[in-house]
Specification:
51% of the residues lie in helices and 0% in strands. With 87 residues, it is mostly helical.
Length: 87
């Protein structure tokens, strides 16, 4: 995947978050773009309703960034009724 040049008006941390969302790693981790979107939406709704973040470093992070980090750190996943994979 090609990296895009820095876009004016978007700080580096936000741009990295956007790139993380587009990466094959996170898409494959949850089973596709649709499942990723559904998982992020569900987790953000939980956070908006007062759910506690499952990661330690949440200072200056948006709920979207928290949800993405939770996925990348294997704190949350899609519950599709199948047993979890063991590595």
């Amino acid at each position: 995947m090609k990296s895009r040049p820095y876009q004016a008006g978007i700080n580096c941390e936000k741009q990295k978050m956007i790139e993380d969302l587009k990466s094959e790693k996170i898409i494959n981790k949850v089973g596709g773009k649709f499942k990723l979107t559904a998982l992020v939406q569900r987790r953000m709704a939980e956070l908006l309703q007062g759910g506690r973040p499952l990661i330690k470093d949440t200072e200056n992070k948006t709920m979207l960034e928290i949800a993405i980090q939770e996925i990348l750190q294997d704190k949350i996943a899609i519950d599709d009724g199948t047993p979890a994979k063991s590595d």
